[in-house]
Design brief:
- By secondary structure, this protein is an alpha/beta fold.
- Helix content is about 35%, strand content about 20%.
- A 9-stranded mixed β-sheet has the order 4-3-5-2-1-6-10-11-9, sandwiched between helices. A two-stranded antiparallel sheet has the order 7-8.
- Helix 1 links the parallel strand 1 and strand 2.
- The longest helix has 25 residues.
- The protein is globular, with a radius of gyration of 17 Å.
Length: about 240
């Protein structure tokens, strides 16, 4: 599909759990370095401008905290701070791999990040830096999925890439169901109708309203984004 080939600028959505690697929690530095090298390949070797939105579920997930009795607003802010920790770790790994990074936060944390201002972010992208957008939207009750769609739209990304543990979108969990069906292509409307687990409903509805296409693939394959070598699911807007 044309909109998914040879992109100039993409948003890469990563879950916090992705940084766990083979661990049960936290950050696996070996996997982090491998991921950073793939991002640098996309940026420096292929010339793709990259915005990254990362979750914090490997450290703390706001909804889970609320389920355990923490006030939902407080829990969500804790989750936002977890994304800042992940962003710092990933940014450090990318810089070690040879690419300039700017961490930009929806919360004002000047000692460790810039405040996210979209015009400043666009300037960094034009100057060849990777942007890591952390702290979600800066508001409770909004997921990092919603933050990813928002940043992709603000920064005029060609499409959004969601890196996952599986090679695309399935009608049910392939780890639990041997007969799970993988989609090569699916429209946003069909994904909403069938309740396919691409991202939360409000995020995918916003993507639909604003015409943002999404590509879902294994996180290990992100260095092949925009080529015919990567296997995944094209989520398109009709």
């Amino acid at each position: 599909m044309p909109q998914f080939t040879n992109p100039k600028r993409i948003l890469l959505k990563l879950s916090g759990e992705a940084l766990q690697g083979k661990q049960d929690h936290g950050i696996e530095t070996e996997f982090l370095d491998t991921l950073a090298s793939k991002i640098v390949h996309l940026s420096k070797d292929r010339g793709i401008e990259i915005v990254i939105v990362i979750g914090g579920g490997n450290i703390f997930r706001g909804v889970s905290g609320a389920d355990k009795g923490i006030d939902r607003t407080a829990a969500d802010y804790m989750g936002m701070l977890a994304t800042v920790i992940n962003g710092i770790a990933l940014g450090n790994a990318i810089e070690k791999a040879g690419q300039s990074v700017r961490i930009m936060s929806a919360l004002d944390i000047p000692r460790v990040s810039e405040l996210f201002i979209y015009k400043r972010a666009l300037k960094h992208l034009r100057e060849g830096r990777v942007i890591i957008a952390v702290a979600g939207t800066g508001n409770p009750y909004f997921t990092t999925d919603s933050a990813a769609v928002l940043r992709a739209l603000e920064l005029h990304c060609d499409f959004m890439v969601k890196g996952t543990k599986v090679d695309g979108v399935y009608d049910k969990d392939p780890a639990k169901h041997a007969d799970a069906k993988r989609y090569d292509r699916v429209s946003v409307d069909e994904a909403l109708q069938k309740g396919l687990r691409i991202m939360d409903q409000s995020a995918i509805a916003l993507a639909k309203d604003e015409g943002l296409p999404i590509f879902v693939c294994r996180i290990e394959d992100i260095d092949q984004i925009g080529t015919d070598k990567v296997k995944g699911t094209y989520v398109y807007v009709e």
